[in-house]
Amino acid sequence: xxxxxxxxxxxxxxxxxxxxxxxxxxxxxxxxxxxxxxxxxxxxxxxxxxxxxxxxxxxxxxxxxxxxxxxxxxxxxxxxxxxxxxxxxxxxxxxxxxxxxxxxxxxxxxxxxxxxxxxxxxxxxxxxxxxxxxxxxxxx
Length: 140
Ligand SMILES: CCCCCCCCCCCC(=O)SCCNC(=O)CCNC(=O)[C@H](O)C(C)(C)COP(=O)(O)OP(=O)(O)OC[C@H]1O[C@@H](n2cnc3c(N)ncnc32)[C@H](O)[C@@H]1OP(=O)(O)O
Fold this sequence. Notes:
The chain is of the alpha+beta class. The protein has one domain (23-131): Thiol Ester Dehydrase, Chain A. The protein is built from two helices and six strands; from the N terminus they run E-E-H-E-E-E-E-H. The model has no long low-confidence stretch (mean pLDDT 95). The chain binds dodecyl-COA. The site of dodecyl-COA has 15 residues, from helix 1, strand 3 and strand 6. Residues 46-115 form the Thioesterase domain. GO terms for molecular function: hydrolase activity.
């Protein structure tokens, strides 16, 4: 199992974000605390970190349905900077579920409920053959 080393959620990745995702019905959520090591511009969370968290949330939605996917498209709107010291909540839910394509929407809000960023993703369901070809190992 390689998931322990996922950059966003893996427990064993020493450089990772170690975000823990939880299921709530067909939605998923996680909390994340922005620290100095997550910045791009001074005091502002790097957009790539924001994107990675939203991408991960979008991948956890199909995972919550026992589907292994990759992100085919990810569109992000950065609304307000996430600042060092802020804790944000990332949530995602499916908007359309087809056999091969899962459409997902995700949001990132701070503790005051201010919208920091939102995302729409197209998640492509991988067959076992595709997973093997990409070297993705999944739990039996
Ligand atoms: C324990 C917890 C751990 C948890 C660990 C969780 C880790 C999660 C990580 C976060 C998620 C990621 O970042 S994943 C990494 C970032 N993403 C990637 O690397 C993906 C790279 N791209 C690809 O591999 C490929 O482009 C695919 C698989 C997305 C599509 O390849 P393909 O060759 O088109 O696939 P194929 O099977 O032939 O096509 C399937 C169908 O989807 C359609 N299709 C393909 N792309 C798109 C698209 N953008 N929008 C709409 N439809 C599309 C095709 O036309 C086709 O339609 P039809 O002909 O069937 O009608």
